[in-house]
Amino acid sequence: MQLESRKKEISTEILLAREERKRLALIYNFLSYDLSKHELLEQAAVIALTNREQRVLDHLNRLYYTVEEQETIDKIRHEIKCTQRFMKVVNRAQENKSALTFSERRMVQEIVKFVVAQARLYNQL
Fold first, then answer.
1. Whole-structure pTM value
2. How confident is the model at residue 25 (pLDDT cuts 50, 70, 90)?
3. Residues 30, 36, 39, 45: is their CA dihedral positive or negative?
4. For the segment 57-110, what is each residue's pLDDT rounded down to a tens digit?
5. What is the mean pLDDT of residues 11-34?
6. C-beta pairs of 71-77 under 8 Å, 24+ apart in sequence
7. What is the pLDDT of residues 33-67, one digit of tens each?
8. In whole angstroms, what is the distance from residue 3 CA to residue 19 CA?
9. 3-state helix, strand, coil in the chain (%, to 5)
10. SS3 for 31?
11. Residue in 47, 13, 43 with CA at minimum distance from that of residue 29
């Protein structure tokens, strides 16, 4: 719950931030809390698999629902990898935006749009 409440606080700050450098720092923080959440849920999935807790796995499967048939733990690990990639690119943009390739700059734009959309959803709750 602390992770989610902190993400909600950061989401408000993201929506209010006008300076790009500050917004990128907030987005990086938001993504780091998101990564922590996925890692905690991965641990929960491993424990549920070990203890054969199907109810917990069903809840996690609904949370990480995709059209493809994959194991829940694989879906969670995919989210972890994506979030880590997002954080890496955002971190590079914070350090030296001019050194980014065109694809990386475009990726940063899409990550910003994605996180801003999530921030709006958090503020509706």
1. 0.90
2. very high
3. negative
4. 899 988 888 767 778 899 999 999 999 999 999 999 999 989 999 999 999 999
5. 96
6. 72/45, 73/42, 73/45, 73/46, 73/49, 76/38, 76/41, 76/42, 76/45, 77/42
7. 999 999 999 999 999 999 999 999 899 988 888 76
8. 25
9. 85, 0, 15
10. helix
11. 13
Q: What is the predicted pLDDT for the residue at 1?
A: 74
Contact 65, 113 (CB under 8 A): no
Query: Of 25, 35, 38, 20, whose CA–CA distance to 85 is shortest?
Result: 35
**Which residues, including other chains, have CB under 8 Å from residue 53's CB and lie 6 or more apart?**
47
SS3 per-residue string spanning 41-84: HHHHHHHHHHCCCHHHHHHHHHHCCCCCCCCHHHHHHHHHHHHH
